[in-house]
From TrEMBL:
GO cellular component: cytoplasm
Record protein name field: Ubiquitin-fold modifier-conjugating enzyme 1
Organism the protein comes from: Chionoecetes opilio (Atlantic snow crab)
Pfam family, one: UFC1
Family: Belongs to the ubiquitin-conjugating enzyme family. UFC1 subfamily.
GO molecular function per UniProt: UFM1 conjugating enzyme activity
Length: 166
């Protein structure tokens, strides 16, 4: 199901050990530390491989995440806002990653700009609860989605390049 490059990238992301969600008070704090460690490692690995493609931060409670993701196509950088909430049933339920500005521009998206992950990613997530975390959702969910959908949307003309100022 996953190619060797993805398997290698995935293998370098630490697995989560704590099965806790936002309602689990102290255990959630422990899980959140693991999540940050996983994200830091994944981002660093991406930078080392010259494959840096997103930035994320969260609210103080670690329940709301937001940032930017980008996709390079024909040497042009297409940048998008990314956001998601941690479900109350996390980690049993994967986060629903949202790219609000792309809402309605592809069939592989739900209302509000939530990307479609049901066919491929969610079964994989379910088999790996509680080991998968936010970094895994980015690596196996958003990353592949961008790689497939953005070039298609560019080709169809529904996403166009705009130069960023500053």
């Amino acid at each position: 199901m996953v190619d060797d490059a993805t398997r290698k990238s995935l293998g370098s992301i630490p697995l989560m050990r704590t099965k806790a969600g936002p309602r689990d008070k102290e255990a959630w704090v422990t899980r959140l530390k693991e999540e940050y460690q996983g994200l830091i490692k994944y981002v660093q690995n991406n930078k080392d491989a010259d494959n840096d493609w997103f930035r994320l931060e969260s609210n103080k409670e670690g329940t709301r995440w937001f940032g930017k993701c980008w996709y390079i196509h024909e040497l042009l950088k297409y940048e998008f806002d990314v956001e998601f909430d941690i479900p109350v049933t996390y980690p049993a339920t994967a986060p629903e990653i949202t790219l609000p500005e792309l809402d309605g521009k592809t069939a592989k998206m739900y209302r509000g700009g939530r990307i479609c992950l049901t066919d491929h990613f969610k079964p994989l997530w379910a088999r790996n609860v509680p080991k998968f975390g936010i970094a895994h959702a980015m690596a196996l969910g958003l990353g592949p989605w961008l790689a497939v959908e953005i070039p298609d949307m560019i080709q169809r003309g529904v996403v166009t390049y705009t130069e960023k100022k500053g």
